[in-house]
## 1
Amino acid sequence: MSTTAVTADLPRTRTSRNWQPRLVRAELLKLRKRRGLVISALALTVLPMIIGYTVLLSIHAANPGKHGPAGGLENLSGSVEMLTLLSGVATILVGATLGAGDLGAGVFRELVVTGRSRLALFAARVPAGLGLILPIVGAGFAVTATGSIVFAGSLDAPSASLLVGSAAWLGLVTALSLVLALGVSSAVGSRGTTIGILLGWQLIAAPVLLEIGWLGSFREGLLGAATERLEPAALFEGGTTVPMSLAAAALVVVAWTVVPLALGAWRTYTRDA
Amino acid sequence: MRSRRLARENDPNIVREDDTESLSRPKTGGAGGPSVEVTDHEIGGHMNTAGFVVETSGLTKRFGDRVAVANVDLRVPRGSAFGYLGPNGAGKTTLIRMLLGLTQATAGTMRLLGRPVPDERAAALARVGAIVEEPRFHGHLTGRENLTVIAAAREPEAHDRIDGALARVGLSQRADERVKRYSLGMRQRLGVARSLLADPELLILDEPTNGLDPAGIHEFRDMIRGFVAEGRTVLLSSHLLDEVEKICDEVAIVDRGQVVVQGSIADLAASGKQTILIATSNEEQALTILSEHRAVESAAAESTGIRVTLHAQDGAASDDISRRLVLGGLAIRRFEPARVSLEQRFLEITSRLEEAA
């Protein structure tokens, strides 16, 4: 083993130059190097869109009289609905890994030992998570948006403003799911437990609660009700399940952003590393 | 309190809790003879602390009713290899975790590199590298990527140190392999490389040779001495007496959460009971004379002579013993002090503590 000094004359003071971006890049590195996670996320977002349009094109080609064109506004609506559901699952996987990955690997204490603020370590996870999941979900949306235009045939193609609005809405829903998963996993400290809890909540409990009419205005506090209120009207016809004002929906979204983040940050700050 | 019980012993070279004249600064070995320090509780209040990279005062950690670290006063001199020695479960790792801000102290104060922690924890830890228990990594990342992740949490210059750190621990050729393929020894080296990213003034290594083969341990030992030669301080926590004795200059012995004795290894070994190896022309007669001497605690025949243990360090007593042997008509063929190892001293201290408990 060499005995050469590593860093004899390097500065002895800490500077803040490029601090946060480096932490974010490091978090992103940890995520994107998890091949299984990235493949799963792609398989839940891009792949279903490709398969969906392939099937629609096939059945349209086989029997154009019975099956309409694969694209158009109506098919966009259906595929975005599916993409929202599946990208929610992908986002939970990413968010849970993001929040509990360091703990699971035992690396959290190594990060704490650097002296870096625990809150800074936590905060860097948000843009890193978004940096991974938004392009993936965006790619899925790009597939469906392209398909809806290219294969519209005789059907009405979605307008540019609708596509932009839909993309923004999908981005919001994805970001909210990520924040929720990140907050819960940082608080719970276990990736598996977080995935179990959130899949149960997102796929079963929340939709069921939304449909229970006697819960009344309580349902306005559910994230699903608020995001439904904010979705582009032209994309999903039939109105919202829980009527609520735009301001109330915005307030609920803010609450579902702040509370999980605060919970995760608090637990990251107080946890024995 | 165990250290108070120890303080009842009549050993002039040990600085004790109730030896108030000795509280102002630690003694060091020199012309005045060896010195070993036993827990005092007023460290830092009225002394120059510039020479210490770690100072704790009354540091305590409780887990419910269980006290893991009890009122520890520790001072680690700058530029030394300092052993924090104690059996498993003695509270070594808990103390290190408190120093590094991994867990909160229940009571007491700490200073790292002269800075109070946790108040100035970030500034203090900027120049501290540490391995706590087994070094952990993201297995799906390469060695280099793991260092990149940690460097991102440190100052920007830390990134420029990655290649040098990998080269220093001999991992340059394997740096781009995933860590899950690394052996335990390679992980230990990578842990050291990671701690070097801080350009550390202080390295805290908790049981660093766990799981290493003899060659790896030897290599590790050389590396640690190399760090000290560069002017860095190494705080080495270990339950291995031999390891601490071979690597460290100073040591604190900890038991059941308390530091029971602290000082240089040479002084510590010398501060215990005096042992003399004697060979004479008539062993039986010599044993009789020795057993009647008031300063002799025990005398036992060995293959090379008689091993005599005195009650305490006492030059006059050994002179008197040699005189009586000669007056008894015996020819003395050997009369020399036995080298006392840290292990013997450690066992001596802990057995006294057990007797006193």
Note: Residues 19-270 of chain A form one domain.
## 2
Amino acid sequence: MTDVIDSVDAAPAAEREVLVRVEGLKKHFPIMKGVFRRQVGAVRAVDGVTFDIYKGETLGLVGESGSGKSTTGRVILQIEPVTEGSVRFQERELTEVKGNDLRSMRPRMQMIFQNPHASLNPRMTVASIIGEPLKEHSDLDADGRHARVEELLTIVGLDPSHANRYPHEFSGGQRQRIGVARAIALNPEFIVADEPIAALDVSIQAQVVNLMEQLQDELGLTYLFISHDLSMVRHIADRVAVMYLGHVVELADCDELYENPQHPYTKALNSAVPVPDPVVEANRKRVILEGDIPSPSNPPPGCVFSTRCPVVEDRCRVEVPEWRQTTAGHWVACHVVATKTQ
Amino acid sequence: MSGKEAVLEVSNLTTEFHTPDGVVYAVNGVDLSLRPGEFLAVVGESGSGKSVTMMSMLRLIPMPPGKIIDGQVDFEDQDLLRLDVEDLRSVRGGKIGFIFQDPMTSLNPVLTIGKQITESLELHTDLSDAEMKKRAEELLSLVGIPDAKQRLKNYPHELSGGMRQRVMIAIALACSPKVIIADEPTTALDVTIQAQIIEIVRDLREKLNTAVIWITHDLAVVAGLADRVVVMYGGRVVEQALVGDLYSRPQHPYTRGLLNSLPRLDQKGHELSAIEGQPPSLRSAPTGCSFAPRCQYAHDRCWTEIPPLAEIAFEHRSACWWDIDNERPRHD
């Protein structure tokens, strides 16, 4: 799936500056068994994904549970070591950077986690949570840090006088703002947001998304926005990558992906998402997929989607489809689409 | 309330939780009515009281700390809140079926699927063993599980999340209930699996004519399913309307705010207008409208008087002191 990568440069979109280039990225978790902990197999969580993230954009990464989207985000940031493949951050190969060198790069790339109840230490005050990265990575003294923490709290819309409170004194939405403040504390260039709104109530989700958009404008941030919520991704993303069982099956500009999806999985996914409008819902045609997502420890041969695909052909069950560009900037991995467009 | 022909009628339901940290005012006078064969969606965020309302109706909340302070739940000429426990058991799982959010925790892991379906048949019908087995098979095919006969011997862990939720639906349908209460039945599922379940529910509605109360936080999921929608906030019903009216002419500022804060898959890049502020604390009894602190239309009266759920148009009720269409206070 990775061999067509050289043609990326031919795409018109390539005039834009690439901040992160992911090539043939794999992450396999070993399955151990028995007294001697012998490896008997592997969960192929991410199994060869290739995409670019342009400077200043939001790349949406969507997929269902078990698709490998969160693992992709974690491996890009080197929170987990890669199994194979490369992640270039500007011109540095992150998979080869280790120890202190990697640590010195951390301020440039940060993460916002899904669950603001679990990702903030309950025994630390907000000031120490947000101040911790400053202590580790900046030369600010205690007063300087305090001033920066108050500034950050104001930026994310919290009351700076609450700096000495503990996470449990805040609501879910406010806690996620604290998580955002921590992520932007060191002026990063790149933020991986892993389901940042999934744990929040509907009326609060828009608050956090609006804040993230506002910060992107003001600070020139680049986001990898990982989510299962296709509607919210349509709202926030510039381009969208769709993952299924460890593979990116389609990647396109946001409107193109939603209005002209090519891969049968993207089509089914789009049609499965309900719209808050009874008139639209009454007239929608749904592609209902049979069955469930297969286990990533035993993925089907050929195309990973072949077991549920409504337009499956014989070769889909044997041959892995090529990752190819159908129109400028629109990438698909599907035999059936390939035949149609040739 | 609306219509004497309701199968289930809830009035002034009030539930509190008396915890060591103080009283939580979870449900504060809820009125609901469900008509035969109707699909009623109850929409609200966490803490809106939607689940506690449903649990209170069948007295399924833990008591203590829960306490049903007031109210009446009329079902087949009986008040479920005052029925003795034996009679109530014949209603639960018999005439009123339940589907819970997480099929993994609500199915018994050490019993086969077959056993769990026949369990409620044993309790509520006098079918013979062979008849029960046949009925269980029928039910599994009804909810779209292939090889029903084989599947009856499976344990819950051998099934996927979507299949388990189908089993839950089959159990709820086992005794041909008049009413099914489904509490966030698709929230734990992936979107393609959710679409499968919604398709089955749609299909079953045509076949069975059972009345359904579907509790959800997701206005999108019920848009294509519901006949009527009830919106809850701070333990009260703030708006109820026929599905078309609720989405096209929302009258309560909260409903309107919620709809404006939702991104839509079929529309590009419109501005999301978030509802500012936080959901209400339920630690004190409401003295005015719970939404007032977040409401752009709040005026003096909203802080001191709880607005009643008043009929403002045909089949359309809203609990608000502000007439949102005419931009003036509402006088009752």
Note: The mean pLDDT of chain A is 89.
## 3
Amino acid sequence: MKLEYLKQAEAVLNKCGRPQLPGGISAVPITKGFMLPMLLQPGGAVTFTKEITGGNPWLLRAISSDEPSSSLVGIRCQIQLPNGRFLFGGNGIDIGQFAWIGSWRWLQDPELRCEPGSRLQVTLTDTTSGGLSAATAVNLLFEGAYLFFMRGGEVSTDFPLASSLPRYQGIVNENILAPCWMSNEGLETPVGFVDEYFPYSTPEPTDQPLQTTWTVVAGAVTVAPNPLPLEIQVGPGFELFVRRMLFDVQFTSTAKAIVLGKLRTGAGYVVNDNFIDLARYLCGAEYPCSWKVKGGDSVFIDVNLADVTGSGTVTFQAHLEGFRRRRA
Amino acid sequence: MYRPQFAYPLPPAPCDDQACIFSFDATNLPVFTGTLAAGAQTGRVPLKLDKDADFYLRAIRSQGGISFRLEDTDGNPLSDSENANNPTNYQLPNQYSNTAGAGLVALESGAGGVFGPAGGNYVVYLYNATAAPIVLTTCALNLAGVKRYSEEVCRQ
């Protein structure tokens, strides 16, 4: 191990912030894994040992196994760690339930410090009724890192542990996928105006069945809503800012269909220029930027049924959810 | 500052935590040696914990098509338990603990997990939500978490 590399690694880690021991001593972890190949004979119960070699302490961080972690293979595994404690409670675990590789590996959290010369012991026991049909190989990879202790490097600044922080701090937008307005950031209401939460909706199917309902007989539409397209009027004096759209499609009896639609405003703005499955593609997702509809304008929704089967009724209601802005 | 999910607090000094799995199958739980008929459920089945340290349950993984419902060591249900519709009371493994992703379903709790004292018993109820009998020797239940060793235990 070249000292210069260790110094460089220490410098990088100090920049990230990390705990330091008194006297400015810090540790540089260098990745190192120990492979433990094992073979279990039918009816056998064998303990295998792996010594922590080298002159430095080693951290156990993960264990990978060549046995997929979604089976019961009849080989009981118990691992005794260098501190004398067992990894598994009770009588151990079936090796087919323990771990596999990659994302399926066993994460040793918190990591376990093992002194040089100490030992990992793995006991495999055949628990099948009648014994294994043949000698079976089991390979475990103990993954971790050697600790190289350094003194006199740059002192790192205090850095709180993630576990000491509250789950929700409420100070910034912590969900990187959420629109900024969800945490009340972004464009503010202009002076002299007031924003009010407001959903606009097309007619409600129970109260207005003629305007919202298709009647389907044997896979064919016999009655369509009237009038079409559906219209949502935005009153004069308000501007509507749509943050998301919700589409409610209901079926009765055996009727099934897809409601295809196009959205546009009376002023000529087109949301989608071809028919799409509204409920599937546009329902519920919040927009990073609001869709602005001017006061006195209307949102028109051209709707058609597709893939119609069965008999019954299909009802449709659309909601434009957001806020409307008026003069204070 | 970004705070990753499922970050657990450090144990109070001088305790130390060590990762641990309790795995229950036909080799250590007699109920798993039988067959459960379609729609049938078992009574309470104790899941014995080791006596050397307290245990904090943080994740669950199951094998096989059996549905189950857990209670903590004080008898508190960890899911719905009194609905007339039985499937509502049990977790369906395909939707929860038989994860095809990283293999374990993590629970987040301010206490660092669901507490179980040394030597205590979690309780599990098994339920066959399918239309066919389930041979329970094909099933397993794994409780993952940490053992919290206190200073007194460490001295032994």
Note: Chain B touches chain A at residues 1-5, 7-10, 16-25, 27-28, 48-50, 52, 55, 61, 63, 101-103, 108, 137-138, 140, 142, 146-147, 149 (CB under 8 Å).
## 4
Amino acid sequence: MSGLPDAADARALAPVPDPDAGLEALLARPLADEDLDRATAALAAPIEHRSTERASLLVVRAGGELLAVRSVDTALVAPPAPVHRVPHRSGAVFRGIANHDGEILLCMALEAALGLPAPAGPRPRASLVVVGGTRDRWAFEVDEVVGVVDVPASAMRAPPVTVAVARNGCIATLARLEHGEASVLDAGALAAIFRGAVG
Amino acid sequence: MSDLGGFSMHELFRAEVETHCAALTDGLLALERTPEDVSVIAPLMRAAHSIKGAARIVGVDAAVTVAHHMEDTFVRIQKGQERTTRARIDQLLEGNDFLLRIAALPEAEVASWSVEHAAEANEITTALSAPAADDAPPAAPAPAVPPAAPASSPVAAAPARPITPTTAPSPAAAPVAQRPAPAVTEAPPAAEAAEARAVRVNADNLDRMMRLAGESMVEGRRSPGLRQALGAVRTDMVRAREALEAATRRGGNARIDAARDALDRADRALVDRLGELERFFRRTEEVSTALYHEVIGSRMRPFGEGVAGFPRMVRDLAKDLGKRVRFDIVGTDVPVDRDILSRLEAPLNHILRNAVDHGIETPAERLAAGKPEQARLLLEARHHAGQLLVRVSEDGRGIDPARIRAKVVERGLQAADVVARLGERELFDFLFLPGFSTARQVTEISGRGVGLDVVHQAVVATGGSVRVESRLGAGTTFALQLPVTLSVVRAALVEVADEPYAFPLSRIDRVLRAGADRISSVQGRLQCDVDGEATGLVDAATLLGLGETARGNSTSVVVLGDEGGRVGVVVSRFLGEEDLVVRTLDPRLGKVPHVSAAAILDDGRPVLILDVEDALNGLRKALGEGTMHGMGAADAAEPARRAAKRILVAEDSITVREVERQLLSRMGYDVTVAVDGMDAWNQLRAGRFDMLVTDIDMPRMNGIELVRLVRADPRFAHLPIAVVSYKDRDEDRRAGLDAGANAYLTKGSFQDQSFAATVTGLVGTP
């Protein structure tokens, strides 16, 4: 088999010089094996995330404390919605179900899950925060959404063991912010507590 | 074009055989019914030929041989070289079954299975090669009197033909091609009809679409609130113009005139915009409602799709029992909710088996009774008045009411004198009792006394009902009435423990408001007179573990009932009736006692749909175990005393105080008044109150100080507090809420219901 003509052949064969022919021939040229291997390796290499250096956090206030959830663990923030108790299921941690855009969410009491003081009276809360993946979403109300902040690793530190144990292992780290120090919640541990409350 | 790259050759062979064998089954049954109709032969030949080709590619020789012989047989029938007999149809169906079985095997087992079943394959091919057995042609004459069927149904269109006994010379002796064209038009095979329109949709996508469509409708319906608010703005403008005109009359000047003109222009613009908005809202509501109905409709499947296997089942069963049955399905394209369709299969299967086994006589019995030898069995589906009606009717022996009466008395289910007075419909209802069977002989097929009760349970569980109509000697009809869809349920909305709950309308006997005269106490337990029947009352809130329901002057009762009797469930109040889109409960909750599903109300609030069967069962179990008891007279008195929730009103103006007191008393609350903040604080600590309503500007202790003091006391941390003041600036509102109030209202709220709504929202109904 003769294979594809190289650029010189293409030019020689062309009866009339075509200004684009050279470019086409260059693009049509087969890649050298080593180039192909290098490009394949580059594409196949795992993407390096910078998550170890910085973390994006949704910072909220609830139970009188500054709390944070990693943005990647947050599904949405919405206005609070009426909660309907579920007979024989609702309790201190599981409040009931709430409707958001036609989706029926399981609404939890974050303060009760973390052992924080309950909100005073049936006062309206500021926002509904939904955490978790498509099939494991959990909603809870907070008193204030402070905002989303990008925090460097240097601003993070481990929580004291007393807090980690007392809060059922839900506090992953502490993050120093301009508003104060926020307890960054471990979404997995929080979901485990929520799951235990509805079963 | 679908990607088939992921399938092995054998898997492709299996899929092809399944498709062609389904076509062969349908075609063979059609051929059996109308052997003179040669038009059905060509597709059968093609199907057999395709299977032969596919089997050759994958090297399944046994299938090649059987398919080849089937194809040859079809060729002979098409050329008129042989006529279609029932025996031949049997052989071809056996060949079809053989092909299906071999295709269903794992690839590795095909070779060994073929060796083991070589004799069977040989039997089939030998039989197909031999001349057709000289039995009667399969098509039997239609009965002289066809069963009742809709005028438009193809069955009714069949002309009556004379009875032809099996021993008579066969009309099929005439060349096939010369036979008259059939008068009966058959519905196209269900699968064919369905496939033409069906697309596969991911169930999750469909659920999300339904959710959003429902939400879009909810949002569309919310618009009237905004419309009313804009209407109120316009009313204010009209008043302002009237005031300006009055000022002008008293001696106007140019500035007033200019202001009036400006107001006129603004009014005209507002009217125009309101008109546009009105049209926009109407259109949005129409579109969202249409979208919602379309999405709900996408859950529908053609009825024929769920009953495609019945013709073969009936045919084989009739053959085994030596009976002649013509089976027709009418309404194959009637849309049915896919969940209902899947739940219908078992009960219909049982009813059809029962019909062939017990309902339909043997050919000899039919002839002796002056009926056509071939019985008619009709499965019919249609929509009527928002319901799906499914009827299974046959022209068999019918049910003898005297035998049922005797059986009922023999079983001790009712006294003989009562049974004698029962109408046929009531009598036939006994057929659905567990273990009740009038079949003299237990057979493999039916007549074991199990089945009809299961049919009843399955239909009831789907929210439907079933009844029997029968005339001795003329036949029997089972009529099933079902909801068209399980996605939408018409429900009675009630309030229990301040939250909405829904009872599916199909599952309740009735709702009623019972005054004190209809409620009495028997051994300390309350009962209500319902149609002359003493109906025990239970508290919905207690049943649901939500405390106790407070009763006022009249008691709201939802009457539920089943075979076990009636129960009156007491709820706080009735909220109305609504079509709810049923949403499954989150699986993480597990099976929630007495709750079947959730839904979203028109106002966007979630509501729980009660599982009436489960509630009744749970109730009886709890009553039996003594873990719950019927609503007692003491319960009634206690909630009545507690019914009036106590509200403390702190207000220094005697006029405003009196207005608030009267408003709240009229709503049913127990109201106590305090003349200032200090008075209120003292009363709060001395008594038990469910809510505090306070003014801001008061002597000795103002409202802000009072609220702060109350909130600082742990005993009152959860006490609902509403501030009602003349001050309507944002900073006043913020000060009140920051102090710890739950709501801040102005005194104008007395006129527009927001005061009443806020109080109810915070403390619940009285």
Note: Chain B touches chain A through 37 residues (CB under 8 Å).
